[in-house]
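ok trying again, last paste got cut off:
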Amino acid sequence: MKKLILALALLVGVIAIFAQNPLAVGQTQFNAGLGFSNWGVPVYLGLDYGAGRDVSVGGEVSFNSYRESYHDNRYNHSIIGISGNVNYHFNRVLNIPSNWDFYAGLNLGYYVWQSPNDYPGDYKNGIGLGGQIGGRYYFTDTIGFNLQFGGSSAYSGGKFGLSFKL
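nice, full thing came through this time. structure:
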């Protein structure tokens, strides 16, 4: 009986330790949603991977289309972004409940700006380096709402959407 109680206590302890990290090592998470920026409302899809204790790496693609008036002319633009990110998750350090996830990190991406040939502006393709800070609230064990703020990316202001642990 003592061995059974000890085994159950050990199992509960291991579960509690892993519950403090919203994205366990080796676990994948799918993210999708909308962004907010100076250039309209981007749509994004991404994956995050639990690379280490409290650390995730991820990738993302985004698309944004917007219309601009310039010298009494209207121009349609689009931005396609491909980026990678690294985040540190603060749940264990700050003792945050497992249904919340608070993180911060860096991103690096390449953005393709497409504008009409007669557009007089200077939007160009290029690399963007930025930082982000965000959080998630999991309303089930596998589905959560995310909100992130950051700059120097296709979102410049931030993004929000849903996260799904796979």
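cool. The domain at 2-165 is CATH 2.40.160.20 (Porin). The CA atoms of residues 69 and 75 lie 6 Å apart.
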